[in-house]
Write a structure and sequence with these properties.
It is built from 14 helices and 11 strands. It has about 400 residues and is α/β, with parallel strands linked by helices. Strand 6, helix 8 and strand 7 form a beta-alpha-beta unit.
Length: about 400
């Protein structure tokens, strides 16, 4: 199979942190998985990447010229070199398929696009018009979650041409070389928490749907004083989160870390006790999947999350975390208390104590679940199967 891989969301090669949200990391790691397969057996798979690697600062300037040039390049590849399939990593990245659908169909090239959530639901009329053009041009849509698939069908995609394939995660990127006990001490020292504090962590681009401001206002006051929160990431909700901290007098219990490098991210996850994902419903904005919860799981961190949208495809209740109804203040507080109890027993057992962790969160169980279910080796195989069918 000759696969053309189109993505406008890759970060700069030499400066990955300049543009590395969930979609960007997925695009980069999926391409890496395809390249590994092609290297193992070039007679089975050949990959031609047509990608834009640029920072957030320049992406809106570069994307239209990139998409037009990609359409020309795709036409040339199909005409001159032969192509079997085209995979686009988002709805925007699929725009060249609209411009080349005639030759793709004449040559029998199968085209597919991945949808992530917001790239389908963005409430802009001209964008929604273009999305419908993309739906008509592609052969199959590959949403990253059931919720994203339903949103795509609501937006006009033919349900018969929708096949859900969950995102994956690089199972070797996190977990190696991170010592949990040293990370715990490091995080508490660096952010001024008590050595005995129970640390909750949230990582992501801080937008309203993530629910962090709500969590600070409504859930943190219900938790014991020794339960603290570390918020990693930046975004338009930072001012509201800071205001919520001031309103509830939580300056000693909540820290805003901002953007961090890979080393700090690993320490923040490995050194914390529970990952929290308190999403709230926001019209026109949805959580398509939530790769960061898989990253937390690779460090054996349980997640307490809202049972909403794409989160339902990441968290299996009682296996790698606990699900709570969105907006349920006491439900979140109780689930966090349960997770803290389970992780405390696991830590006691790991350090030679007599505690027995609950079966759901036994040491290594969360990591094993993520590795077996969401590795890119497994997920990339599902993509290739969808492109061949």
């Amino acid at each position: 199979m000759h696969l053309v891989y189109i993505s406008h969301t890759l970060p700069p090669v030499d400066r990955p942190l300049d543009s590395l949200g969930g979609m960007q990391r997925v695009s980069m790691e999926l391409l890496g998985a395809f390249k590994r397969r092609a290297d193992q057996d070039p007679s089975v798979l050949r990959v031609t990447p047509l990608v834009l690697s640029v920072s957030w600062r320049w992406i809106h300037v570069m994307v239209v010229p990139f998409l037009l040039w990609t359409a020309i390049r795709l036409w040339w590849l199909v005409r001159r070199e032969g192509v079997d399939a085209v995979l686009c990593t988002s709805m925007v990245s699929a725009s060249p398929v609209v411009l080349t659908q005639g030759i793709l169909r004449r040559k029998g090239v199968r085209s597919a696009a991945i949808s992530h959530g917001l790239d389908v639901t963005a409430p802009v009329s001209i964008y929604q018009w273009w999305i419908r053009r993309i739906f008509a041009a592609i052969d199959v849509l590959l949403p990253v979650s059931r919720a994203t698939g339903e949103a795509s069908i609501d937006a006009g995609m033919d349900a018969q041409r929708v096949q859900v394939i969950s995102n994956g995660v690089d199972v070797d990127r996190l977990g190696s070389g991170v010592h949990r006990l040293s990370a715990r001490a490091s995080i508490r020292t660096e952010f001024g928490f008590s050595p005995n504090a129970h640390v909750l962590v949230n990582v992501g681009r801080q937008v309203r749907r993530k629910g962090v401001a709500w969590f600070v206002r409504s859930v943190m006051p219900r938790l014991p004083e020794d339960v603290v929160l570390l918020v990693v990431g930046e975004g338009p909700e930072m001012a509201d989160i800071a205001q919520a901290i001031d309103e509830r007098g939580l300056n000693n219990r909540v820290r805003l870390a901002g953007r961090v490098d890979e080393s700090m991210l690993m320490r923040a996850l490995a050194g914390s006790d529970v990952f929290v994902m308190p999403n709230i419903p926001v019209a026109g904005d949805m959580e398509g999947f939530g790769v960061v919860m898989l990253e937390a799981g690779l460090l054996d961190l349980p997640t307490v999350a809202s049972g909403i949208e794409g989160i339902l495809d990441v968290i299996t209740d009682g296996v790698n975390g606990l699900l709570v109804a969105p907006g349920d203040e006491e439900g979140f507080a109780e689930a966090i208390r349960r997770c803290l109890s389970a992780t405390a027993l696991a830590d006691d057992r790991a350090t030679g104590g007599n505690g027995t962790a609950s079966a759901a969160f036994a040491p290594g169980s969360i990591r094993a679940h993520v590795r077996s279910t969401f590795s890119w080796d497994a997920v990339s195989g599902r993509y290739l199967a969808a492109l061949r069918s």
